[in-house]
Amino acid sequence: DLDYISAYPHQLGLIALLEQIYRVFGWENYRAFQALNALGAAGIVFVGHRLVKEISGREEPGVYFLILMLCCWPLIIYVAFVYGEILSIFFSLLSLYILMIYFKKRRKRDILYMALSITAACLIRSNCYIVLAAMGCVAAVKSVSEKTLRHVLAVLACTVLFFLAHTALVKVYEQRLGIELNQG
Q: For the chain, how are helix, strand and coil distributed in percent, rounded to 5?
């Protein structure tokens, strides 16, 4: 709906994702999105477990995390909703996990994976800009402590990829709709 997109352009990423799901699985097939949410919820638990293990260096806190996730009702409830929360949290956690792995192993390919993950998170839900900013802060501190710009440049690459993807998405929808989208 043209009025909806004009009023809420920050949801353009979620709209684009839903459009692709509907093309594959049928118009307004919310069950396909719910299935994607269910996979995202499982991904949150898996990546969260790995993240806790990586931070602590031990298995025990990871087990506690899994036990606590059994009581995380919002994660279960949100599977049914078409908000994009679960997918954005999954991609945010994934980008944070990859950032930790990047700091540890210093592989260039991790920068690409991290950039793709945080871009997906930010496109799906704009509240993930906070995660991107936090990644920048952590990279800045790490760069200062190691006296290198490498980590800041890695997060800058993530930011550039997001802005390029967001700009391209807006331009595509503006061209398809024949209007200029406002800032909402």
A: 85, 0, 15
Q: What is the pLDDT of residues 64-121, one digit of tens each?
A: 999 999 999 888 888 888 788 999 999 999 999 999 999 999 999 999 999 999 999 9
Q: Are 132 and 115 in contact (CB under 8 A)?
A: no
Predicted TM-score (pTM) of this structure? 0.91
CA 41 to chain centre: 13
Dig out the tokens for 175 from the structure. 């061209």
Q: What is d(CA 161, CA 17) in angstroms, rounded to the nearest whole number? A: 18
DSSP-derived 3-state class of residue 124: helix
Burial category of 13 from C-beta neighbours within 10 Å (exposed 0-12, middle 13-18, buried 19 and up): buried
Q: How far apart are CA 118 and CA 144, in angstroms?
A: 23
**Of residues 20, 75, 80, the one with CA closest to residue 43:** 75
